[in-house]
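Reading a protein record of the kind used here takes only a little practice. The record below shows the convention in full:
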Amino acid sequence: MFNRVAAGVLAALAIVGLAVPAEAQRTSLTIGMSQFPPNFHPSIEPTVTKTYALNLARRSFTTYDHDWKVACFTCTEVPSIANGGAKVVDRPDGTKGMEVRFTLRPDATWGDGTPMTAKDIIFTHEVGNNAAMGFNNPDLFNSIERIVEVDPKTVIMHFSRVRYDFDHMSDFQIIPEHIEGPIYRALTNPSDYGRQTAFNRAPTTAGLYNGPYLVTEFQTGQYIVFGRNPHWKGTRPQFDRVVLRTIENTAVLEQNLLSGDIDFISGELGLTLDQGLALSKRAQDRFNFLFEPGLIYEHIDLNMDNPILKDLRVRQALLHAINRDQLSERLFEGRQPVAHTWVNPRDRGFHQGAKRYAFDPAVARRLLDEAGWRPGQGGIRMKDGQRLSFEFATTAGNRVRELVQQALQSQWRDVGIEVVIKNEPARTFFGQTMRQRTYTGLAMYAWSSTPDNPPVVTLRSDNIPTQANNFSGSNYPGFNNAEMDRLINATQSELDAEKRKTYWAQMQDIYTAELPVLPLYFRADVFVIPKWLTGVRPTGHNVSTTHWIEYWRAQ
């Protein structure tokens, strides 16, 4: 009875023109995004779209905040050498290791009311340390020798080596032992975990989540519905219900925004920059526009197993033939600066002296001549009866990537290189093609990272996805360089920030010399925010805005 009366009062106020509080008017939010997650497990097949979605329902152990500093979200204090939470220790074999103490918040609880405990942390390490699981960033799990329970809320992690990032646990996504434990222990084939996990078989299970929302409904490829988590002890979110709708064609996504079918578009996975720039000129009365540059690196992976691409001269020719400055100016009004390595100038490891490849078609042609590729029929180069031709893949429906593909296709043809465009839906492109390295030539997408994060997962050789490691890691080019491996390891184990800068410079020198990847530009995400919505704060790194959705408000 009370609810019906209250609803009637609000309706009457609206009829007579009196103001109705915004929080009474808006109890749901519909967000549009251009991709659907390949699955719901937080540590298997990581993608930006999955992180964006799961950040409504899960909170990290620790991760980077808006100020690019490590902060606790389910723990009580970030451990450090200074506060005694971390210390370097001598190991029995004479090497140095670390002991790091973490304490969960007393009110940390799973969405079914079960307390989060040390058992969850220990179980997560057990699963993540099993190579057959295919977890992202196996290096983190492998570097932790064991985890010892101090009390139900406190653990000590014993690291087998010194790591400067001992406090950064974004990739240590705690999973609930009371739900996943029975599933994991019942496996006869460990590699089946990705198919059997409740995250994928029953993702609406409340106990999988510890954030302000729970996954309550979904339709693969179409939408995910989130409802309030009754056991969430943090700031109460305004919206009772949040819907993420997937519309892969970004032009259609924009139309849905303007028609009011969706309230807001994900800045991380929404409109392309050119769309945002055009829309900002005609819809400033309805939306606020933010163009947030950050640690998002658009690039082209080169499959280093391809015999043609093994020749460095071919890789160099591909880059010299691209007019990246022209692309940036014509498509993005200069808002997306040309990249020369994967390290953004805003990041601490940026190396100003790294080699740069200028647009120079004459140099590209000379390199191809030296590699034995001569002009053939139709202007496409030939060698030993083979055309200089590659498949070129990216995410279908992304308008700006398709425009970039067409421009590059034309520029490469000018120097005698043929590319055949072969695009796929994002869930196939990331969930299968890239993860299993079935692409044969070139693949364009973005890396997103946290600050000061060495490229362990993307460039170290033990992170090349293979069937043997259940396709874990994201070294999709298949780059295998012993010196790069050594420098990545040295960077990780160096506690002195100034000394790490030297390693960062050397890594970028190798990267630009070997070119396993063609750098394009650093992306600026487009945030088109309705004027009634506040609290959406881009970070500039890979922790999405939804990690703070409990602070979003309608006004």
User: Anything to note?
Assistant: Residues 294-524 form a domain with the Dipeptide-binding Protein; domain 3 fold (CATH 3.10.105.10). The two ends are 28 Å apart (CA to CA). The first strand starts at residue 28 and ends at 33.
